[in-house]
Amino acid sequence: MAIVYRGERFSGYNKPKRTPKASKSHAVLAKQGDKVKLIRFGQQGVSGAGKKTDAKSKARRKSFKARHAKNIKKRKNVCSLLG
């Protein structure tokens, strides 16, 4: 079910897609009730997603986990109780 909105093609509502020439890297056609809105987000050219294996990324991940260890532990405890 393809949706065309203002000349742009979307695979469906609330499904993000990459934008080739816009100032933002992604766009999503959001729908809540009867309201439909085009939302653009993300910085062009940034590759922040994905798990990197270089030393700098490992150090950043280790620091983050140390900084948030209390919250991570709390979240795991809550999930084990729920599920």
How would you characterize the overall build of this protein?
This protein has helices at residues 55-67, 69-82, and strands at 3-5, 8-10, 17-18, 24-32, 35-43. The protein is of the alpha+beta class. It folds into two domains: 3-43, no CATH class; 51-83, no CATH class. The strands form two sheets. Strands 3-4-5 form a three-stranded antiparallel beta sheet, with no helix packed on it. Strands 1-2 form a two-stranded antiparallel sheet. Strand 3 and strand 4 form a beta hairpin. The protein starts with a strand and ends with a helix. The model has no long low-confidence stretch (mean pLDDT 84).
Secondary-structure topology with pairs:
Elements (H helix, E strand, L loop, with lengths): L2 E3 L2 E3 L6 E2 L5 E9 L2 E9 L11 H13 L1 H14 L1
Antiparallel strand pairs: 1-2, 3-4, 4-5
Defining traits:
single chain; 83 residues; alpha+beta; 2 domains; three-stranded antiparallel sheet; two-stranded antiparallel sheet; 2 helices; 31% strand; flat
Low-confidence stretches: none
Largest sheet: 3 strands, antiparallel
The assigned structural class equals: alpha+beta
- The shape is flat
Give the percentage of residues in beta strands: 25-35%
Radius of gyration: 19 Å
Run of helices and strands = EEEEEHH
**What distance lies between the first and last C-alpha atoms, to the nearest angstrom?**
35 Å
The total strand number stands at 5
Please give the order of strands in the largest beta sheet: 3-4-5
Q: Give the rounded overall mean pLDDT.
A: 84
Summed up, the domain count is: 2
Helix content: 25-40%
How many helices in DSSP terms? 2
